[in-house]
């Protein structure tokens, strides 16, 4: 049965940045399909608590684990290791022209968006290798294809992460581990709520999207479930773009 191939019973999933937005939708989707989910945010928060409650209703053994990905030592010391499915979803972005980006801002974005991803891959790999099964999933951005002029480091960090996915996919395939990037376009989340509340700006954005609307966070959950489950076992080193066609030229 095809539906059985989406079942995540017995799997532990760690989804970074799952207190809110796309990560929350992925966490809820995985819990619905039977995974124990480790719910994460940068810090304890009302959003984190609410998401944990909602996830636990679907998967009672799920629990919260907030820590700051901008601190490499926290990642090293706190990142859970007994994880079957890792989704590196959290990221930060700053809106600055490339000639104005201070070193500290560059380093923070690269740490949260790229370095922490590799650190967490390293943390969970031994467990996945020992079980000969694992899913490493990154969340990229349509900016891999269409970089925004005021987010050069963010765009570059996402491209670096996607390159890492292809690099590592070849190296861990024999360990039963797949590695993929899920690449969102414009999603209506807290991150861009202020910008999209301006009707003139929003219309400009929607006009660039062939499907002509912003995605809801849920629109990423099915793609993530495919990559995380047996249904996606033959997909590795891929970039699954969920963008309403935004990346397409013309
Ligand atoms: N929304 C879009 O249009 C869009 C488009 C392309 C790509 N993406 C990508 O999709 C992913 C999710 O986006 P989103 O819009 O759902 O994000 P969001 O609503 O801004 O939520 C971001 C999540 O990441 C966590 N986070 C941020 N900085 C962190 C840090 N230093 N340490 C630990 N956690 C941190 C936040 O924690 P707190 O809850 O504690 O703040 C939050 O839970 C991101 O990788 C983003 O780049 C989004």
What descriptors fit this protein?
globular; 7-stranded parallel sheet; Rossmann fold; 42% helix; 7 strands; binds NADP nicotinamide-adenine-dinucleotide phosphate
Descriptive report:
Helix content is 42%, strand content 13%. Strands 3-2-1-4-5-6-7 form a seven-stranded parallel beta sheet, sandwiched between helices. Helix 1 (21-32) runs parallel beside helix 2, helix 1 (21-32) crosses helix 8 and helix 4 runs parallel beside helix 5. It has a single domain (2-242), classed as NAD(P)-binding Rossmann-like Domain (Rossmann fold). The termini are far apart. By secondary structure, the chain is α/β, with parallel strands linked by helices. Strand 1, helix 1 (21-32) and strand 2 (36-39) form a beta-alpha-beta unit. The site of NADP nicotinamide-adenine-dinucleotide phosphate (NAP) has 29 residues, from helix 1 and helix 6.
